[in-house]
């Protein structure tokens, strides 16, 4: 079966996490992704957080499926020529070097345009133009600068970063959308263009509702769905809301049976207004369905703490899965707190290809997250990440280099 991005060739100059997530997605949609790495070393993540000596780390393998790897020294004049040949052959160059690194290599936007006017040049940077544009940035810096950390955690504690890699993988997703959009526009204009996804912007885009709340706070001085209401103090900026749901339907994380020993024996419980009467029935507080202090969403707001304490008395008598089963029968929105162990073992995620087992020549079998985006006409088969430089000869031959030329370039240290 054909793939959505069949025929699209990507010169993948990415490393670490943000860029590789983007090009991995494009590879899953069928693009030929040629990852250019530094000879001898490669992407730094190959050796980071290793669990098996001398074997590509899970950090690397889980971000670089379905790609080919070539090693080129792009600071060597002959290596630069090979890169120029690649630029002429490819549709998209994706990079997430520190600001200015591509220019220092000699590959400015103007130079790339000279070589290939159809080339789309896509970059992840920490910040867009402004006071921090020259800064190097990693995940948590972006979470802090994009508004996620100041709005995550509890009111009486410090800012907290989240485990979801919204700065890196989140920005990779944004960049991938920018690239396919630019490819689409190129079908009309015939021209390439630059695509920039700044990590601060990507995180802020995901924190959009918190900028909404900032303006609500400035206008009204309070926000009734926040746990600070009605007794706590609101300051000038959006406070951390703990586990409050943040929408119009109040929610909280509640203990379930076994919480004393299992750190994940919890459930997320939403007191959605249309099912309030059913909630009252389930927890044995039928009188709350008609009591004027509890019967309407507005009346409940000042009592949320007590309400969730009462619901928790009920959830503590059930495991999170038993509670799920009962609550789902009544259409009460809730969700178990799943550990990574439980997710890894979940059969339905294996069935849909969201969790995939991959075989690797030096590592053996390991689990990875497959393509979370399912296309009915472009199914994803996850294949292992490449070994360092595994496809150098193959790609060089496709570029028209003879075995003798390849060997000479290797002797010169260019590849
Ligand atoms: N051959 C020769 N040199 C190569 C090469 C190759 N194949 N590939 C890369 N290089 C060189 C570059 O030319 C550059 O050299 P100069 O600094 O002399 O110009 C250098 O390697 C690139 O390094 P870098 O500065 O990008 O890497 P770093 O490890 O110092 O910084 C990071 C890493 C991530 C902080 C930085 O790349 C960055 O800020 N990127 C943008 C934001 C981003 O994507 N962050 C997310 C990372 S995931 O958490």
TrEMBL record:
GO terms for molecular function: formyl-CoA transferase activity. Pathway: Metabolic intermediate degradation; oxalate degradation; CO(2) and formate from oxalate: step 1/2. CoA binds at residues 17-18, 38, 96-98, 104, 136-139. GO terms for biological process: oxalate catabolic process. It holds the Pfam family CoA_transf_3. Keywords: Transferase. It catalyses: formyl-CoA + oxalate = oxalyl-CoA + formate. InterPro entries: CoA-transferase_III_domain, CoA-Trfase_fam_III, CoA-Trfase_III_dom3_sf, CoA-Trfase_III_dom_1_sf, Formyl_CoA_transfer. Coiled coil: none annotated. Substrate binds at residues 247-249. Its EC number is 2.8.3.16. It comes from the Bacteria. Homodimer. Belongs to the CoA-transferase III family. Frc subfamily. This is Formyl-CoA:oxalate CoA-transferase.
């Amino acid at each position: 079966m054909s793939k959505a991005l069949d025929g699209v060739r990507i010169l993948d100059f990415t490393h670490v996490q943000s860029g590789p997530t983007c090009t991995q997605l494009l590879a899953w949609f069928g693009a030929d992704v040629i990852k250019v790495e530094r000879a001898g070393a490669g992407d730094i993540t190959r050796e980071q957080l290793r669990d098996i000596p001398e074997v590509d780390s899970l950090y690397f393998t889980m971000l670089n499926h379905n790609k080919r790897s070539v090693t080129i020294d792009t600071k060597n004049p002959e290596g630069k020529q090979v890169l120029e040949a690649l630029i002429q052959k490819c549709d998209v160059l994706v990079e997430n070097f520190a600001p200015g690194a591509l220019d220092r290599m000699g590959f400015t936007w103007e130079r790339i345009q000279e070589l290939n006017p159809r080339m789309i040049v896509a970059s992840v940077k920490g910040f867009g133009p402004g006071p921090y544009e020259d800064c190097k940035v990693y995940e948590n810096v972006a979470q802090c600068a994009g508004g996620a950390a100041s709005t995550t955690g509890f009111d009486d504690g410090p800012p907290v970063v989240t485990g979801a890699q919204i700065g890196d993988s989140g920005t990779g997703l944004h960049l991938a959308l920018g690239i396919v959009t630019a490819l689409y526009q190129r079908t009309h204009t015939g021209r390439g263009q630059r695509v920039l996804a700044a990590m601060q912007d990507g995180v802020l885009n995901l924190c959009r509702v918190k900028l909404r709340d900032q303006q609500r706070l400035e206008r009204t001085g309070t926000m009734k769905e926040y746990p600070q209401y009605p007794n706590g103090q609101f300051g000038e900026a959006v406070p951390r809301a703990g586990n409050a749901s943040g929408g119009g339907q109040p929610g909280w994380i509640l203990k379930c049976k076994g919480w004393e020993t299992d750190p994940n024996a919890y459930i997320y419980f939403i007191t959605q207004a249309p099912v309030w009467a059913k909630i009252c029935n389930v927890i044995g507080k039928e009188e709350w369905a008609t009591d004027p202090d509890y019967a309407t969403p507005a009346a409940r707001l000042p009592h949320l703490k007590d309400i969730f304490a009462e619901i928790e008395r009920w959830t503590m008598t059930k495991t999170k899965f038993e509670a799920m089963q009962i609550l789902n029968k009544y259409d009460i929105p809730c969700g178990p707190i799943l550990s990574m162990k439980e997710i890894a073992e979940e059969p339905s995620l294996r069935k849909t290809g969201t969790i995939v087992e991959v075989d690797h020549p030096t590592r053996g079998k390991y689990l990875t997250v497959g393509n979370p985006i399912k296309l009915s006409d472009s199914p994803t088969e996850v294949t292992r990440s490449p070994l360092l430089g595994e496809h150098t000869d193959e790609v060089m031959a496709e570029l028209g280099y003879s075995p003798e030329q390849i060997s000479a370039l290797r002797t010169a240290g260019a590849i």
